[in-house]
Specification:
Length: 262
């Protein structure tokens, strides 16, 4: 498949497929290898085609599948040095790492990848833009606050994969412990629907075709509320907005035809 497809998105695990004619990667691998293989098969991709796994940070919902993928299948892991340390501690194994520096673009195959700093509660979490020959795609989740750097890096994208984690009132009303609420709502937690909508308003331009709303909380959000909040912010735009699902693949985006399938 030439394009990208969210395979899982949320607190129970995150994984995205991204591929061109020459290079195929996963972005994070926070679900089981079995589920990754099955969901790749749904879009016509074999796990044997995956060249590397690009990792945003070391929380378990982003790296849970790495041990099997790296040790048994010998797939290299691309991460910055702090995240690599966290991965090695978590999987109790030193995989084949390709270390990148946060803030510095690098090339992998025919992809130009730019990792940039975000606000989250790990030592060096990052989001990414990935550029192909004709497209720029932004992947940005697990951040409590969208800085001016985030805005700058995400401008000019053709596609965006953005966090819309929660509605603050639903977090306050939930039965979760106070420490959980403080974390999620803090500047190193997760982006709310409202903050996602505000970010979209500030960065969207005529290039933007589609937005995936990602990492939705199953307890403190709903797809309907997230979609409504963001669509209100871009109501005069033709940009397509859809949900990145937790338990199934989401609508793939195909670069060859610039179309999506529901």
């Amino acid at each position: 498949m030439i394009g990208f497809c969210p395979l899982a998105s949320g607190s129970k695990g995150n994984c995205i497929y991204f591929g061109t004619e020459h290079t195929k990667i996963l972005i994070d691998a926070g679900i089981s290898t079995k589920n990754i293989i099955l969901r790749l098969q749904e879009i016509g991709v074999s796990i044997d085609e995956i060249d590397a796994i690009l990792v945003s940070h070391e929380h378990s919902d982003h790296i849970m599948g790495l041990k099997v993928l790296s040790k048994r299948m010998n797939i290299p892991i691309m991460a910055n040095s702090e995240t690599a340390k966290g991965i090695a501690q978590y999987i109790k194994y030193i995989p084949k790492f390709k270390i990148f520096a946060t803030g510095e673009s690098f090339e992998f195959g025919d992809l130009k990848i730019h990792p940039f700093t975000i606000q989250h509660d790990t030592p060096d979490p990052v989001a990414f833009t990935i550029q192909t020959e004709s497209h720029k795609i932004g992947f940005c989740t697990d951040l409590g606050f969208a800085t001016t750097l985030v805005e700058q890096k995400l401008k000019g994208c053709d596609y965006l994969y953005l966090e819309a984690n929660h509605t603050p009132s639903m977090v306050h009303a939930s039965a979760r412990p106070a420490i959980y609420k403080q974390r999620v709502l803090g500047r190193h937690g997760h982006l709310s629907n409202e903050d996602c909508a505000s970010l979209v308003e500030r960065i969207m331009d005529e290039k933007l075709k589609k937005i995936y709303l990602a990492h939705l909380s199953e307890e403190c959000n709903s797809p309907e509320v997230a979609l409504s909040t963001v669509k209100k912010a871009i109501r005069n735009s033709s940009v397509d907005v859809s949900i990145a699902h937790q338990h199934k693949i989401s609508s793939p985006t195909y670069f060859s035809s610039l179309t999506t399938l529901a």
